[in-house]
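Batch job 17 of 40 flagged for manual review because the log was empty.
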Amino acid sequence: MQRKGANISLKGYDDIFSTEQSRAESQQERVQEIPLSELHPFEGHPFRVVDDEEMMKTAESVRDFGVLTPAIVRPDPDGGYEIVSGHRRHRASELAGKETMPAIVRDLDDDAAIILMVDANLQRETILPSERAFAYKMKLDAIKHQGERTDLTSAQLGQKSWAVNQVAEQSGDSRVQVQRYIRLTELIPELLDMVDMGQIKFNPAVELSYLASEEQKDFLSAMDYAQAAPSLSQAQRIKKLAQEGECTLDAMCEIMNEIKKGELDRVTFKTDSLRKYFPKSYTNKQMEDKIIQLLEQWQKKREKSMER
């Protein structure tokens, strides 16, 4: 029986080398210089890009040394590329008069892109409460879309949630704090801006997030009426009124117009501003006693004038 010869085709050295080289190159991410005009901001990007002093410093650095860390982008179906990480570097490049910037192109789906975008921006030193709030929410939704089970039906009760735990572990905040930040996304823009500017503190803001949009608008009027920001206690009571269906503008104005305990219990004067009204030999206690004495006399005089 005649033995059949094996039909084997042996590749040359150059063929083998080129195949291995092309395979290695395909596995490596290449940095490309991409025109700034072809780079578009990430849809729903929650982090603000403002031309502040820090941005001017970044632009100056880009002008002198270029962009040292490439941006991460992904192909945009409508043309060009969508920035995943590098929005501030992109703006700094514009201000520096650059026409291109270095970037790495990755083929990312929406969920992977959101998670990468959030994680990259959470490394910044200064993040506004609203930025962190929407970033956490976007990342949580992305994890949910990836098929992980989660439950956000009651953030304040702290029910178990694998997805929330993932966001918490990767951000450094507790799971409860992550849930509380996400509550801020329920605030109307006017109130959320006040939180960012420090006019409303974080904890009262979380309580106010449970109010309906129209109730929140009425609360703005109550704040304006009282010319005061809410304490945690006031916000909790207003939230309770909302839960009971009794959150009217009048009720909120009444609560907001209350004198806060700290304001009622403490009046502070600088010693230097009082010293000029007393003999140099007076001690602080003697000044205090004299002030009380004069106030008592003033009160008696005021009462007599009211009786007339």
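Reviewer: the log was empty due to a logging misconfiguration, but the result itself is present. The chain has 15 helices and five strands. Unflagging and moving on to job 18.
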